[in-house]
Amino acid sequence: MAAVNRPEQLIESVIAIATEAGQKIKAIFHQGDFEQTIKLDSTPVTSADLAAHQVICERLMSLTPDIPVLSEEDAEIPLSIRESWQRYWLVDPLDGTGEFIAGSNDFSVLIALVDNHQPVLGVVYVPMTQECYFASLGNGAYKRSQGEDFPIHCRSGYEQNESALKLAVSRRQDPNTVLNMFNKKQDYELVRLGGAALKSCLVAEGQADCYIRIGPTGEWDTAAAQVIIKEAGGQVMTTDLQPLTYNRRETLENPNFIVVGQSTRNWKDLLKAAS
Ligand code: IPD
Ligand code: CA
Ligand code: CA
């Protein structure tokens, strides 16, 4: 069993697990003959989601047998059990199932370690590019591409003030839904991408300044990217600008949230002026 007092020591093992799951997803993507059903929450799930779920759960339970695993594909665990968890793995085996089904490359594997209601380690693996974003608290955020690790940072306040504010927006959403939430005095540029975590990673690597998500998401959608954002200099908050928290409620549904690359900017005014 691996040591967990220092989560950063687990990073390489977690990247290896996310990579293995991502390779399974990619193989199914290329075969193209996956099964697809609709879950009770009306969202789709495929045989690729379930294959990734299975391998991630098996590998995490073998890596740290004492740490429970909460995956989107096996999330019916009541708070009466979860509330005794100091630490747990929080997993979205395939974020961007809709993109996967549509044949787009914008999907990823998300694994986070949550400790005392806050994510402390996060890995976002992108199967189609074989790139990976990762971070653990206090150790910076990185992107691994072609075997090399590059530190990543959100765009600075100076860069944000000097140009249009870059908003990460879903490929499959009317961009006006997002634009209408912001102060019209500011100029905006849209950066279109699928998948909740990948849009957060765009903010972490300075390709976008903000990603706002109105509508249902699960705690597994935000945890891994939240560590990466934080270590890159940004923040994930509710749209009331309160911190997001984990494993405190019976529901695992997140409130509406905003991912920002510059915590000190006056986001309240930027959002409030639109209402
Ligand atoms: C969804 C995707 C989607 C986002 C949804 C998520 P799933 O996750 O990230 O882009 O808009 O809010 O629930 O169902 O593909 O894991
Ligand atoms: Ca998801
Ligand atoms: Ca998912």
From TrEMBL:
Its main location: membrane. It holds the Pfam family Inositol_P. Substrate binds at residues 72, 94-97, 221. PROSITE patterns: IMP_2 (PS00630). Its cofactor is Mg(2+). SUPFAM superfamilies: Carbohydrate phosphatase (SSF56655). It is a peripheral membrane protein. Mg(2+) 1 binds at residues 72, 92, 94-95, 221. The keyword ATP-binding does not apply. Its EC number is 3.1.3.7. The keyword Membrane applies. It is found in: Cell inner membrane. It comes from the Bacteria. GO terms for cellular component: plasma membrane. Keywords: Cell inner membrane, Cell membrane, Hydrolase, Magnesium, Membrane, Metal-binding. GO terms for biological process: 3'-phosphoadenosine 5'-phosphosulfate metabolic process; phosphatidylinositol phosphate biosynthetic process; sulfate assimilation. InterPro entries: CysQ, CysQ/Inositol_MonoPase, Inositol_monophosphatase-like, Inositol_monophosphatase_CS. GO terms for molecular function: 3'(2'),5'-bisphosphate nucleotidase activity; magnesium ion binding. Mg(2+) 2 binds at residues 92, 95, 221. Converts adenosine-3',5'-bisphosphate (PAP) to AMP. NCBIfam families: bisphos_cysQ. Belongs to the inositol monophosphatase superfamily. CysQ family. This is 3'(2'),5'-bisphosphate nucleotidase CysQ.
